Amino acid sequence: MNRNEIVDGPKPKHAQLRDILRRMAEQELPPGSPIPSERDLAQQYRVSRITVRAAVGQLVAEGLLTRAKGRGTFTARRRMDVQLYLESFTDDMRRRGLTPTTEVHRCADEVPPPAAATALGVPPHEPACHLVRLRLADGVPLAVERGWYHPRIVPELHRHDLTGSLYTLLADTYGVQLDHARQTVWAEGADPETARLLGIRTGGPLLVFRRVTSSAGRPVEDMTSWYRGDLYQVTMQLDRTDPDSGHYFSAKGGNP
User: Which Gene Ontology BP terms does the record give (predicted)?
Assistant: First the structure.
């Protein structure tokens, strides 16, 4: 029997089609490639569209395929490791051989929420720069960044081109070299606005990083980044330390 044929037998047709599509996704098509439409698959393999939906849905759930609203179904891109040290997104993508681009969606002086004001050490009700950016690599949306910046350390940030490396801009224009960060990582589902910017479904998996970054002991940035969970993973090296210290493992880390 041809491995790309679907026949009547003990194995359900949706399971046979699922195996065919799995081979296609893992062995034949490069990451990010479109697969045939439901209609084309139904005609090619002489099955119902319900059978096609069942097979495709299982592979989407497994992470081998991904749906893009209004565009179709694609083989999933391989996940990238989030780099756990203090490096800009722009430099990280270039090092991977990808072309980074940035869309600035908001840059305005606004009163930060209490948590951000506390992190930056600014008085309550004092405005700070609120910056929202969409980060892309080779045209693919990867992350949404929403950050607050200290108004006296980096004043009038909105006057500058914010589509490149922000860390390079801070160093070259303000003489601010970011040298320390404290970061918290968690997972959550995408809210409607973040999902729209990233081109994923509402509730889709995200890796979230909140990072407070300092220069010479002065907090400069309080930024939260929402990274696509289908394209990113975190790898950490864990070392056992002295149990008497109260810390059993230490993780080498920093920022994405």
Answer: negative regulation of DNA-templated transcription
